Amino acid sequence: MEKRIPMRQCMGCRERKPKREMLRVVRSPEGTVSLDFRGKAPGRGAYVCPNPECLKKAVRSKALERNLEVPIPPEVLERLSREMEAGHET
User: Fold this and answer.
1) What predicted TM-score, i.e. pTM, was given to this entire model?
2) Bridge partners (DSSP) listed for residue 45
3) Which tens digit of pLDDT belongs to each residue from 50-70?
């Protein structure tokens, strides 16, 4: 019996990919928005491919804000962008 792989949709490119390949942005029950690299933090989550272009599309279309139902602070977007760039350099 094969193990089922959880799939998630990118808020930028709208492609479905395995959850482990995606970066999760989470809104905690207190309302703060942060990055969740383990994928286990409590709260409402939205997923983005580890591709800077997908992040730009998601920000431009406000897909992350709609999905999380809260405005995304600029510092969270900057940190997500830095993490993506660091991941592409390795």
Assistant:
1) 0.84
2) 26
3) 888 998 899 899 999 999 999
